Structures are given as structure tokens and as C-alpha cells.
Amino acid sequence: MSDGRCIGRKRFEMSDQEMFARISGDRNPLHLDPLAARRTQAGVVVVHGVHAMLWALECWLESGGVATVFGISARFDKFIEVGDLVEARASTTRNGTRLETYSGRSRLAVFNLRHEERAVPALEDDVGFALDVIEIPFEPRSLDFDAAAQSAGIMQVQEIASHFPALRHAIGGAATGGLAGVSTLVGMITPGLHSILAGIDITFDALATPAGQIAFKVERARPDVRLLDIAVRGCGLGGTVRTFVRPPPITQPTTQDMRAFVGATDFEGRNVLIIGGSRGLGELAAKLLAAGGANVTITYLVGQSEAEAVQADIVEGGGRCEILRYDALHDPSSQLGNALDRVDQLYYFATTKIFVRTEDAFDSAIFQRFYQVYVEGFSRICTYLSDRGEGARAFYPSSVAVTDRPPSMTEYAMAKAAGEILSADISRFVPHVETVMRRLPRLLTDQTAGTPWIETPSGVDAILDIVREMNR
């Protein structure tokens, strides 16, 4: 826990996101589009790290901070979710001032300010290296790691200083715009779409040129952790920007691809309901079952376009698929009504954001969020199937986290363990419903994809085994 004094509190809302995107030019969908953001490691729309830094700097200066700032180094440790209450704290160190941002007890970022002057590092173009001018695109560029590692150029910087008047007075309008330009460089140009800003080490110098522009060149690339160090100079600042090149959203095999694993009539005549079938493991199950001749209905909560894309792929591959909107937190009969004929099989892939920030050994609010989806939601849909009286098999996906319990996943593991008990007792006590439960390993999905490449078992193999078992 920081011992710094509180200098400001703010709840970043979507209006703040849109404002900063407009004035900086950083329109990366991670910060603006809930549907796109949920297919990243963040899982939700998150605040521009540089925006939070500029806000903290403004708070510090307005609270009486030292007006002479020669540089800043920043480390962005955790995402700030839109709607979080963020607190900025300040403390004095031997070398300057330390600012930190917190959400509850969780530290999000650290900003170390230098009050002593030091030389601005030169960029290669200062000694004659020719760089092309790159306009800020309306949509972010999508560079893979190798292409991003070779990137260099000059980017125009938008004027934003009027929005941060105390900071403009301390470091000048050009450098204030240059800091915002760092966000735009990473989020829109290099690496662009698939980026996560990790940190900066910047020195301010009014003589750093070009004016109104930032010259940049990747000076170090670490493919093992997909990390780039980008040298920057211009617009009154110079130094290094560090960014991850995150993996793009996971693309699942097509229904046509699945025909290599199943026969065209393996699941003929089965009527299957897949809760959460618009992406991830539910999408895999839907395509495998459809490729084998099953009549598939998939549900979505917010990703209608994703569900429609899965449906189109199944139909194009010769299968049958319907889509429905479904919220696992509400009564199934009022949502499904007469939309379904017979249901022989249920696959319950409803989920919520898995990786949730907490500093406590146990957080009851986080547990309740998981419990509502993984336990109460499964109970509701199984009761619905029982009331239909037709007889159905229901698959419940648990997780190896129940036994492995990675850090900060206590609540998730507890909810999944409760779901396992519920699954077993539904088979014993709920008429017309037989359950199949499997503890799944970490499989490659949008939620589990980390920044470094991690070897994971084949999702197709794991889901195929489950589908085979459900159809024995």
C-alpha cells in the first residue's frame, strides 16, 4: 500500500474515452469499442494509460507540485476499466516525485518525475537518417511483431495542451502534446491495433525537434515476450516508449475445417443448445456438432455480430444453426419461450470476465459475480430443461483452476468448484437431466491469450472429446 497523499480521484467514463480519442487521435478500439475490447486480454474497454498519467500530473501540479519537471518515467502495470474509481497519490523520493494511481488497494501505474535536468538522447535521424512522415490513420494499423520491429517514421502530433493547463505551464504545450502523442504512436501506428503500452522514459527539452511531430524508430525488439522499445524524439521531448505487441483475437477453425474430425452424420438428429456459442469454446463446439449433422442453436449476450458470423460459417459449411440472445442471469423460459423445439443436449459456456483485479485473499463481490453465472445460471437452465420433460444431457465446463488455483483466481476456482457439486447433484436429483462435467485445461481463447506465447492444448481436441462423450 502506498504511503503517498491523495491528490485526486476520478471515475473515467466513456465520455472521457471519446474526448481523449478525439484530441489525441488514439482511437484504438481497446479504449472505445466494448465488443472489440472483450476479445483482448483486458476483456472490457479500458482507459488510455497516457490519459490517466496526464490526469495524475495535472492533479499533482494543481495541488502544489513542483513546477519544474525535466522528465518522467512511467510503468503501466494494470488496466483501468471504464467506470473504476481511480485515486492519484503523490510522495517525495530522493530523486524527485513519485505519483501512483490506485483502484481500491490495487496499484495500476507508477510515474516517477525528475526535477533535475539531463540530456535528451539522440534519435538516429538526428545524424542523417531519413524518416517517412506517417499520417495518423482513422483506423489503427495492424502490424504483426516482425513488421512492428522494423517500424520507423515521423508522426504528426495534435494540439491538446488547452485540456491540461497546469501541465502546459510546467513542461510547455509542445511536450504536453508529445506525451499524448506517445499514446497515439503506440495505439494507432506502431504496433497499432494489437498494442498494450507498457512504459515510457521521457526527458523534456524545448529544443527537441521536429516541432509538432514525433520521430520514432524501434531500437530493440524482444520476440520472446513480444516487447518493443521505441526511441522517440521531437515535440519537446525525447526518450523511449515500451510496448507489447499483443496477439490478435483468436480465430477458430471453420465448420469446413471441422469435417476433418467428424463424419457428416455422426450427430445427425441431435438438437443442441449452446449457451455462449458466439465465440471461444462454445463456437468450437457449435461448429463440430454442426459439421457432424446436429441441429445447433447458439446464444449470445452482447456479440450479435459474432453470433451471426458463426451462423454464417456453419450454414456455408453445410450445417444448420439458429441464434438467440440469452442472459444467463435471467429466467430461461421468458427468454427461450417457444423458440426451441426439442433439446437433446446443452453445452453451458456462459462466462464473465475471468481475470479480475484484486489484492485481497477473497473478494465476495467478485465471487458473487462468478457464482451467479457459473452456478445459478447453470441451475436455471437445467431446471428449464427438466420442466420440459424431454430428457437432455448437459455439459458443465469446470477448470483445472479448481485444483491448481493460480494467483488472484480464488473466487473463480471457488465458483467452479461449487458448479461441479451442482452438476453432480443435478444428475442425481433433477429429473430428465443428465450432466457431464469436465475440468478443462487452459485452452487458447480470447480471455486466456497472454502477451507472451504460451503453449496450450488443442481446443479442437478437447472439445471433440467432450462432444464424443456427450453423444455416447
TrEMBL record:
BP term (GO), one: fatty acid beta-oxidation
Record pathway: Lipid metabolism; fatty acid beta-oxidation
Domain MaoC-like, residue spans: 15-97
Organism superkingdom: Bacteria
GO molecular function: enoyl-CoA hydratase activity
Residue intervals passing through the bilayer: none
Pfam families named among the record's database cross-references: adh_short (PF00106), MaoC_dehydratas (PF01575)
Protein name per its UniProtKB record: SDR family NAD(P)-dependent oxidoreductase
Organism: Sphingomonas populi
